[in-house]
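Dear Dr. H.,

I hope your travels went smoothly. While you were away I took the liberty of generating a structure for the chain from your last submission, since the lab meeting agenda had it listed for discussion. I wanted you to have the full record in hand beforehand rather than looking at slides cold. The sequence, exactly as received, is reproduced here:
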Amino acid sequence: MTGPLTAAVRAVLAAGFTTVTGARPVLTSGGSVRDLPDQAVYYANHSSHLDFATLWAVLPGRLRDRVRPVAARDYWSSGIRRLLAEGLFNAHLVDRTGSGGGRAHAGGAPSDQLAGMTAVLDAGDSLIIFPEGTRGTGETVAPFQSGLYHLARHDPAIPVIPVTLGNLGRILPKGELVPVPHLSSVTFHEPIAVAPGESRAEFLERARQVLLAGATAGAPGADAEVADEGDAT
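The corresponding predicted structure, in token form, is as follows:
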């Protein structure tokens, strides 16, 4: 789906998500989402199926049309889910297993997944990823998989922006189908980059600590639940 009609439908859909979630975008640097860069890799904590949709929805239209959430092909590739994922959200769908057959998520992607995501960046689009990889207890942010590190190194000119999502797990808890309106928050932190001499493990832990700090001190009502099995991120 392309063209003015798609843009209008996306705008209506985005308004619906922000209404249901009460999402309030905040930049820790001040300003508004209109000040976000034209291209970025957004990474966030994950507490429900609403996460990537809410992050997508709070972006201004010019950015929303060029951002691609990374999601699991087996969950989003049939029926209405496929229409939403590919037609409206413009999601980049990935297989949960690499070409070698081993289970993987976009956060810890094998080479074929990484090639697809770097191709998205090379085309000028942005990405939304959830680098914890699998859903945990919801009490903390799990250690990150390596995909974020490789994306950050692919093109250092593309900002890597941490995003703390708060309260979305309460709006659509695991196992529930109908969202319950509730105030949520989407906090965009200052971009990070791989420092000279910084190892993969050091970078990933530093990136994780940004979300942990945001969940405990920066984002109103933030919860730090980890990635849902429905999204391969």
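Two observations you may find useful: Residues 106 and 233 are 4 Å apart (CA to CA). Residues 200-218 form the longest helix (19 residues).

With kind regards,
E. W.
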